[in-house]
Structure prediction request, 281 residues.
Amino acid sequence: MDVVLFILLSAWGFIIVVPFVNAVAISFTSYKEYLETPLLLFPRAPEFKAYRELFKDNRLLYGYRTTIAIILIGVPLSLILSSSMGYALSRKGWPGRKFLFYFILFTMIFQGGIVPLYLVVRSLNLTNTIWSVILTGGINTFYMLLIYNFFQTLPESLVESARLDGAGDWTILFRIIIPLSTPIIATMTLFFTVDKWNEWFNAMVFIRSGAIQPLQLVLRSIVLDSVTASQTATTVSLLERPFPIGIKMAAVMLTMLPIMCIYPFLQKHFAKGMMIGAIKA
Prediction:
């Protein structure tokens, strides 16, 4: 059985690793070499045309700046909103708790849609600002439920003892509950960071100014521009300039690299937070 599991896991790992290596190789290869070997793992003559094409565009700097601002503001805001809501729902004894819980759970299945959301954002005069992206993604129901489930696993006696000492709900949350919830908070920090880093759809709907577009939307625009340019280019010029697939893979690498650098620091909390947060429903 160990041999069978080893073979299956090795095959699964091979299926995962090969496309990633292929994407890295394509981002460093030439169009001619790509045409000769589409399934490329090690480029014979590595070049940086695709990365130079991306970095020479000033929009990339604006994209990084906007995305970092969205992460620095949006992740703490999402953690505060999700933690406070999860803590409130995990406390028993107040009227309307179950109704509010199922009302929030209802939003995971049925949503208003993009048109009502756009009308609300426009009525608040938030269109064409980064706040339209930050506030529309302020809380995630699924992540809030994971935090809620984790809080329910903490002993009720801790809260009762703090109340006897005169502590209020905010003091209990930030000085007792949150310090004991490091695994789930670290996991949610990673999840929210990935969500904010990959944000592009809400930005595409609400933001028109190129100076405040997030990174993913900027990379999408650059890739689409390269595709358009390649459709009107001659065969000779295609061999000399970066080709669209190479630029697309270079954009994928620029998207993945920061998250790959952050993940190892949160990995030890990730599995524990997910398991404990999903046990009790």
Q: What stands out?
A: Residues 5 and 209 are 52 Å apart (CA to CA). The chain has a mean pLDDT of 81. The first helix runs from residue 2 to 27. The chain is about 75% helix and 0% strand.
